[in-house]
C-alpha cells in the first residue's frame, strides 16, 4: 500500500518495465544514427574522397582534373617592383563595347527611288527647277496659276499698307500697279499659329476665334481702326475734288469778261 492509499498491482509494475525498455531501445537507436551521420559527413559539409588500391574502385571514383584551362586575363598587371602602381588595368565593359563595335556592320545606303524612273528632258528639268527657289531660300514654292487671282488681293493689300497706317512709311514695291503680272515668282502666305500655355489653357496673346478671318483683306475690312482711317481719307479726297469743281463755269466766264 502507498501513502496515498493506492494499491500497486503487478500489472502496473509490468507496464512501467515495458515503458522503460522501449525508451532504452529508442535511445540506443538515436545514438547509433548520430554515429552513422558523423562517419558519413566527416569534416562538416565537405565531401570525403576515398582512395582505394583496387582498379575497380579507381574507375568508380576518379580524381577531378587539376588543369584549370585557359584563364581570363587579370584586371590589374603589376611590375616587378613591389610598391609600384599597376602597369595596366583591364575594364570588361570597355572590352565588351570594343568587341560589339567591331562586329557591328555598316548598313547599306538606301536605294535611289528614281534609279528606275524615266530620264527627264532639259525642258522638264528646267520647269521642275523653277518650281522652288532652291535650298538656299528654304525651297520657297511658286504658287499655281489658278491661285494667282485669289493671292493677288492679299498681295495688293500689302502693297497699299502705306494708306492704312499714316505713321509708317514703306518703300514702293517693284510690281505695284502691274496687276497679276506684277506678282513675285516665288512667294507664300503663312498663318500665325496660336500660342500654347504650359497648362493647356487659352492664352491672352492669341486672337479670339470670332476675330480670325480667312484672308488678309477680310481682316483689314473687319478692322475698325483701319476702316475709320480709310473713311477719313476718302472724305478728305472728296472734299478736295468737290472744291475744285465748285463754280468752275462762273470763274471761267469771269476770265473772259471784259474789264470795262
Description:
The chain has 260 residues and is mainly α. Helices cover 42% and strands 2% of the residues. The protein has eight helices and two strands; from the N terminus they run H-H-E-E-H-H-H-H-H-H. The protein is elongated. The relative contact order is 0.04.
By secondary-structure content and strand pairing, the structural class works out as mainly alpha
Question: Can you count the beta strands?
Answer: 2
Order of helices and strands: HHEEHHHHHH
Distance between the termini: 190 Å
Shape: elongated
State the low-pLDDT regions, or none.
none
Percent helix: 40-55%
Main attributes?
mainly alpha, 8 helices, single chain, elongated, 2% strand, two-stranded antiparallel sheet, 260 residues, 42% helix
Amino acid at each position: 500500500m502507498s501513502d496515498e492509499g493506492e494499491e500497486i498491482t503487478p500489472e502496473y509494475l509490468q507496464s512501467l518495465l515495458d515503458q522503460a525498455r522501449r525508451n532504452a531501445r529508442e535511445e540506443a537507436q538515436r545514438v547509433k544514427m548520430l554515429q552513422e551521420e558523423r562517419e558519413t559527413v566527416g569534416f562538416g559539409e565537405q565531401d570525403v574522397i576515398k582512395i582505394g588500391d583496387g582498379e575497380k574502385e579507381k574507375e568508380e571514383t576518379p580524381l577531378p582534373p587539376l588543369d584549370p584551362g585557359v584563364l581570363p586575363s587579370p584586371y590589374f598587371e603589376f611590375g616587378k617592383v613591389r610598391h609600384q602602381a599597376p602597369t595596366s588595368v583591364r575594364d570588361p565593359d570597355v572590352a565588351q563595347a570594343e568587341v560589339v563595335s567591331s562586329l557591328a556592320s555598316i548598313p547599306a545606303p538606301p536605294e535611289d527611288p528614281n534609279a528606275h524612273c524615266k530620264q527627264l528632258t532639259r525642258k522638264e528639268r528646267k520647269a521642275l527647277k523653277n518650281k522652288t527657289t532652291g535650298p538656299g531660300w528654304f525651297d520657297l514654292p511658286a504658287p499655281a496659276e489658278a491661285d494667282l487671282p485669289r493671292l493677288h488681293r492679299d498681295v495688293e493689300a500689302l502693297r497699299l499698307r502705306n494708306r492704312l497706317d499714316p505713321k509708317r512709311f514703306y518703300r514702293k514695291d517693284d510690281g505695284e500697279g502691274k496687276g497679276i503680272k506684277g506678282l513675285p515668282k516665288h512667294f507664300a502666305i503663312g498663318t500665325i499659329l496660336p500660342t500654347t500655355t504650359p497648362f493647356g489653357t487659352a492664352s491672352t496673346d492669341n486672337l479670339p476665334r470670332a476675330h480670325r478671318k480667312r484672308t488678309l483683306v477680310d481682316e483689314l475690312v473687319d478692322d475698325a481702326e483701319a476702316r475709320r482711317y480709310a473713311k477719313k481719307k476718302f472724305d478728305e479726297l472728296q472734299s478736295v475734288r468737290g472744291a475744285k469743281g465748285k463754280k468752275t463755269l462762273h470763274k471761267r466766264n469771269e476770265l473772259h469778261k471784259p474789264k470795262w
